[in-house]
Each structure stands twice: as structure tokens, then as C-alpha cells.
Amino acid sequence: MPKRTMQGTVVSDKADKTVTVLVERRIMHPVYKKIITKSKKFAAHDAENHFKEGDFVRIRECAPISKSKVYEVIYDDAAKA
Predict the structure, then answer these.
(1) Count of domains in the chain?
(2) Above pLDDT 70, what percent of the chain?
(3) Is residue 19 part of a domain?
(4) Cα 37–Cα 75–Cα 69 angle in degrees, nearest 5
(5) Domain range for residue 35?
(6) What predicted TM-score, i.e. pTM, was given to this entire model?
């Protein structure tokens, strides 16, 4: 089964080896048919403490690292640019 990947913005990098990523998605309201934006924050593992607040990152599902961390930041050339 493929792992879920999402894109979002880092809103906090205060914790050690952890970043908080705000993921926004646009959906259509089932009754009013209006496009609305829903957002959710995820804690993601950043082993090298590389990403800072405001960076655009991709996160991927992984085995649980702690109680709230089940995502990891994907390190690729597009994310570092």
C-alpha cells in the first residue's frame, strides 16, 4: 500500500527534530457547492533540523516515531530550493 504524501508550510520549528506542518486542501461543500479551504497541522520528523518556519515541505507517512509523529519530511532537491 502506498504511503500518503502531502505538501504544506512549516508553521513551527521550535521542537528538536520536529516541525509542525500546516496542510491546506480545497474541497467543495456538499450542499452549497462552494469551494472551501480546510487545514490541519501535522507533526513531522525533521532529523537534521534543516527546515525553518515558512518553508514549503513535503511530508510522508511513516512508522510512529512518537505519540503524535507519524510523518517524516521528505528531503529532496525541490524541497531544499
Answers:
(1) 1
(2) 94
(3) yes
(4) 60
(5) 1-45+57-62
(6) 0.86
